[in-house]
Known about the structure:
This protein is of the alpha+beta class. It has helices spanning 20-24, 39-50, 71-78, 84-87, 112-129, 142-148, 174-181, 189-192, and strands at 61-67, 93-100, 133-137, 155-164.
Amino acid sequence: MTLITDLTSRNADTDAPLISALVERWSPRAFDPTAEIGADTLRTVLEAARWAPSANNVQPWRFIVARRGTPEFTTVHDALLGFNQAWADSAAVLIVNVAEVADEQGTPRRWALYDLGQAVAHLSVQAQHEGLHTHQMGGFDVARLSEAFGLGDGLEPVSITALGSLGDVDALPEQLRQREVAPRSRKPLGELVITAA
């Protein structure tokens, strides 16, 4: 069994000092299929998302929270596509991140996707602070999840967050195992900043 025990090897090599939760955050695929997340910890992670900023304080985010072993978890897992299905079943929780892209009158909420992204980022950083790990997924059947959970007009599943504790790297398919231990990288800051005063 191979566990990534030297987590410092996964730390971001930053060009400026960051808080530890950001330096240590990464997106594993090897989750412990026996680990559970207590109700209080899960509530804390979701509370961090609740307090994210949003345009006009509309808070256009909703979350479908599915614990491993429940019918809801199976529904979410079965809607995943490609390699996501090969590993996400080991996560303790799958969270469907939903944006309220239009109000009750059908008026588009232009900032909803951005605001949801901020809420999920807050959730991810809090999870890291709690000793948990997250992995965001975009490969899933949107229509299937919308129908399964009765999401009406204006509500759009955008991503799914796998949440849990680190597990056995050897349990992953070979291709994913290589990606799990590959060096982390980011584009240089100079490529991302269009202009700086």
